[in-house]
Amino acid sequence: MKMDDFIQRMLQTGVGLASAAAERLEDTVKDLIKDGKLSTDEGKRIVSDFMNDTKEQRSFMNSKVASVREQVKEKLDLPTSKEVKKLKKRIKKLEKAIARLEKAQGE
User: Fold this and answer.
1) H or E segment at 68?
2) Kindly report the CA angle at 68 between 78 and 73, in degrees rounded to 5?
3) 21-39, pLDDT tens digit by residue?
4) d(Cα 78, Cα 68) in Å, to the nearest integer?
5) Per-residue pLDDT averaged across 98-105, rounded?
6) Cα–Cα distance between 84 and 88 in angstroms, integer?
7) In whole angstroms, what is the distance from residue 34 CA to residue 12 CA?
């Protein structure tokens, strides 16, 4: 599994957990409103605050993951896909040049 795939799965897991927590919170708030322990406005505010905090945390985690990903790539000194394409092109040119030289020597 590639690092990006792993990170993406971890983010998706986090989003899934946050979604489940939001559903659970909404159900609890509805029950509290139904029991008269919380007003409708208070319930809406609690759920809204939770959703906003979750969005902020998701944004923070995405930027943190991107930063860590770049640090890892830099430390591993991995070539970018653009660099790999460029090298493949260069290798093909060199292979053709070698083939021409071998053919010229054989003649």
Assistant:
1) helix 40-76
2) 5
3) 889 999 999 999 999 999 9
4) 14
5) 93
6) 6
7) 33
Confidence of residue 107 (pLDDT cuts 50, 70, 90): low
How far does Cα 78 stand from its chain's mean position? 18
Q: How far apart are CA 76 and CA 64, in angstroms?
A: 18
In angstroms, what is the C-alpha Rg of the chain? 27
**74 HSE (CA, 13 A, CB side):** 6
Q: Tokens for 24?
A: 């659970």
Name every residue whose Cβ is closer than 8 Å to that of residue 51 and which is 6 or more positions away in sequence. Answer: 22
Within 10 angstroms of residue 31's Cβ, the number of other Cβ atoms is 12
